[in-house]
Amino acid sequence: MSQSGAVPNWTNVSEARPTFVSHLECGLTGERLPADVPHNLSPAGKPLLVRYDLAALADGISKAQLAARPPDLWRYREFLPVRRSRNIVSLGECLTPLIPVPEAGADLWIKDEGRLPTGSFKARGLCMAVSMAKEFGIARMAMPTNGNAGAALAAYCRAAGIEAFVFCPDDTPQTNIREIALQGAKVFCVNGLINDCGKIVGDGIDSMGWFDTSTLKEPYRIEGKKTMGLELAEQFGWELPEAIFYPTGGGTGLIGMWKAFDELERIGWIGSRRPRMIAVQADGCAPIVKAYEDGVEFAELWPDAHTVAAGIRVPAAVGDFLILRAIRDSGGFAIAVSDEAILAARDEMAAETGFLLCPEGAATYAAWRQSVRDGRIAANDRAVLFNCATGLKYPMPPAGTPLDRHLPIDYGSLA
Ligand SMILES: *Cc1c(COP(=O)(O)O)cnc(C)c1O
Fold first, then answer.
1. For atom 10 of ligand 1, which residue has the closest CA?
2. Does residue 215 have its Cβ closer than 6 Å to ligand 1?
3. Segments forming the whole domain that contains residue 307
4. 363 CB-near residues (< 8 Å, 6+ apart)
5. CA angle, 361 then 363 then 365, to 5°
6. How far apart are CA 159 and CA 89, in angstroms?
């Protein structure tokens, strides 16, 4: 698909194309705000959603034109908010493969997001947020993170020449903390959880001149994560699967995919059939599951949050009502799995298929199995699991049998 020569055009960013953002809208009240100026939350304190002139967008691009473009995130340029190509900050956001899992004896697929820059799907959101920050001339960005978002912020900020300040819980995996530092950001390890880190960012905005890049407190990370929905639809030939199992922390990706499906229907590229959106959380931190089961619109703060799946250890999500709305409108559900089930699912998938999931991705596999067992979905329903980061970024059990080269090797004993 590359346009010329031996070097593939992975970044596809030089071509000028029209953009279609019309305004931003409060996700709760619908209040309209102007595009082309920096925003955080709406006046009601809720996430903002980016709106497009979809009629013009529909005239501006066809499925056939899209199909001819290079295989990267920027192929969806008309659906994205960046106005000027020169502001696009890219580290090579490839399309991610959809891999069937025949071993499961079901219509089961893994969307492997571990292939993206910085090894997680946080790259999708942060390439967009940082490109928009560049468009607005923002000089300093800050965020609380459980690791992967901070790594992506650091990388894209370095590429854009923007200063980055990152605050993690002090038990964040060392790999994350060190990659953040190597990629040029200032990184701080806080003796608390992500919401405690978020308070430090919020309180420092005025004195430090930071732009708050916390999950859903700026509007463009959703637009980047939305490309997961566009990509899924295109990869399945514009027929959506029956169910999507999404490891839910702040919920950016779930909200983003739901928004993508809505936009695709409005421009006539898909029909009204939707996947059931299934939010997966861990037993030790399941605020969305509790709110779903209690039938309420907003989630309560989850006390003493803990799980091996750090990416979904989010005790309070500012977009809770948007996550719950997508789950309910889609006929989906929210489900919690134990840490034991998460690690067992990771080990089993790796041993049986050769696919090393990250713990959050493994949580979706554990949840899928539990849902099939409980009859909440059928094995022959086409289901997609999100492996949101590379399994290589996480601690693994020790292995490797010692072998003394000075002694005769008993080859028969190795098998
Ligand atoms: C951030 C993250 C999640 C949660 O994603 P949201 O869209 O914020 O809910 C899940 N898994 C991993 C590995 C993450 O980094």
1. 311
2. yes
3. 98-119+222-393
4. 247, 280, 281, 282, 309, 312, 337, 342, 345
5. 80
6. 7
